[in-house]
Amino acid sequence: GQNIDQPTEMTATEGAIVQINCTYQTSGFNGLFWYQQHAGEAPTFLSYNVLDGLEEKGRFSSFLSRSKGYSYLLLKELQMKDSASYLCAVKDSNYQLIWGAGTKLIIKP
Amino acid sequence: GAVVSQHPSWVICKSGTSVKIECRSLDFQATTMFWYRQFPKQSLMLMATSNEGSKATYEQGVEKDKFLINHASLTLSTLTVTSAHPEDSSFYICSAPGTGATEAFFGQGTRLTVV
C-alpha cells in the first residue's frame, strides 16, 4: 500500500529553527509537495520537490532524497503565525496526490 | 494562479436533510475535481473524483448514493450530502489538480455541521 509518515506534533520556540520530516512509500513518484494548513482553512502550497536536493524559498526550505523516500521541511526564524499543520503529499504514478496525516507545529514565545 | 471558489464556507443542517456544496473554477477549466473530507486532527481523505461529462469515481468505503457528485460543466462541480447525519459533520474541500509540477488548487472548504 501507499504510505506517508510524518510526526503528529512538534513544538518549537519563536525565532528558532524546526525541521519536519516526511517519509514515503508510494507506487511511483512524480513530485513531493509541502502544504501549510491553518485550522478550518484549506491547505496553502509551500514547496515542490521532484529532484534530489534542497529548494529554498525565503524562511522555508524543502529537501528531497528519492533513494531514501525522505523529505524534510525546514522553517527558520519561526514566527507565531507559523503555528499550523504542515502536510506532506506525494504525487504517485497516476499523478494522484497521496497525503500524509500532517504535523501540528506549536510555536511558543 | 488559478482560483477555485467553494460555497458555502459553513452550513448547519438538520438530520435527514440534504446539503449541496459547490466548487467553481473561476479562471480556468477544470475537467477534474477532487473532493476531500477532513475530520478534526486528521489528514485530507479523498472521497471521490469528479470528471466533467462522466460519472464520478468514488473511493472505497464512500457511498455514492449518499454523496452525490455532479460535474456538468468545465467550471462547476457539486457535492450533495443526502440524508445527512451527525457523523457526516466534517470539513469538505474540493481541489482541482495541477499538471505535473503545479500544485493543486483548493477551494476554501466547507464546514458542515449536522444537528
Give the secondary structure arrangement, pairings included.
The complex is a heterodimer of chains A (109) and B (115).
Chain A: E1 3-5, E2 9-13, E3 18-25, E4 32-37, E5 44-49, E6 53-57, E7 60-65, E8 70-75, E9 84-91, E10 97-99, E11 103-108
Parallel strand pairs in A: 2-11
Antiparallel strand pairs in A: 1-3, 3-8, 4-5, 4-9, 6-7, 7-8, 9-10, 9-11
Chain B: E1 4-7, E2 10-13, E3 19-25, E4 32-38, E5 45-51, E6 57-58, E7 67-73, E8 76-81, E9 90-96, E10 105-106, E11 110-114
Parallel strand pairs in B: 2-11
Antiparallel strand pairs in B: 1-3, 3-8, 4-5, 4-9, 5-6, 7-8, 9-10, 9-11
Provide a quick synopsis of the model.
Chain A is mostly beta strands. Chain A has no helices and 11 strands. Chain A has strands at 3-5, 9-13, 18-25, 32-37, 44-49, 53-57, 60-65, 70-75, 84-91, 97-99, 103-108.
Which terms would index this structure?
heterodimer; A: 109 residues; mainly beta; six-stranded mixed beta sheet; five-stranded antiparallel beta sheet; 11 strands; 0% helix; 57% strand; globular; B: 115 residues; seven-stranded mixed beta sheet; four-stranded antiparallel beta sheet
- How much helicity do the residues of chain A have? under 10%
Number of strands of chain A: 11
Question: How would you describe the shape of chain A?
Answer: globular
Percentage beta strand of chain A:
over 45%
Give me the count of strands of chain B.
11
Query: In terms of per-residue confidence, which ranges of chain A show pLDDT below 50 for 5 or more consecutive residues?
Result: none
Summarize the main sheet of chain B. 7 strands, mixed
Largest interface: A-B, 21 and 20 residues
